[in-house]
Amino acid sequence: MTVHAFEVTAADGTTRSLGDFSGKTLLIVNVASKCGLTPQYEGLQSLYRDLQGRGLEILGFPCNQFGGQEPGTDAEIQDFCSTNFDVTFPVLAKVDVNGPDAAPLFTHLRAEAPGDFGPANGFLYEHVKNTRPEAIGTDEVKWNFTKFLVDGTGKVVRRYEPTTAPEEIRADLDALLPA
């Protein structure tokens, strides 16, 4: 199964097939408006602006599972992203990324790229170790702004933990995208 087999809900409540992105390189990110990492929206938008013409699509999925840092409605989230970060990539409907109500897409992403979350993640590792110790050593998404890179065939290529800034992903994107 590939990412293209999944359907997701847009912020306006409509359903969208990820099959529509066949041939595109995807960066799928769980996002939040009130997180210390929220400024990563700037880096994500910069990547999108620079690389969309080469086939990059970024899909943001708001999630309120980490410290209640995405409490708004889908409409409020859209307004926040547009007003504060001039986001033009799709920010879809709010989802759970872990647990029994996790969106099937994120269950798939986690299974395909379980991550490598450890002490090298510094402050965030210490925070998760203290607040969610049961998540350490699992495939769970550990925090907001976890990023999944998907190639044009829908295969999950890599997972980037939240402390990886968008600009650090640029070389991997350049390698996947046509020149």
From TrEMBL:
Gene3D superfamilies to which the protein is assigned, alphabetical: Glutaredoxin (3.40.30.10)
Stretches of the chain forming a coiled coil according to its record: none
PROSITE patterns in UniProt: GLUTATHIONE_PEROXID_1 (PS00460), GLUTATHIONE_PEROXID_2 (PS00763), GLUTATHIONE_PEROXID_3 (PS51355)
A single GO molecular function term of this UniProt record: peroxidase activity
Record keywords, A-Z: Oxidoreductase, Peroxidase
Domain of life per record: Bacteria
Similarity annotation: Belongs to the glutathione peroxidase family.
Protein known as: Glutathione peroxidase
Lineage of source species: Bacteria, Bacillati, Actinomycetota, Actinomycetes, Streptosporangiales
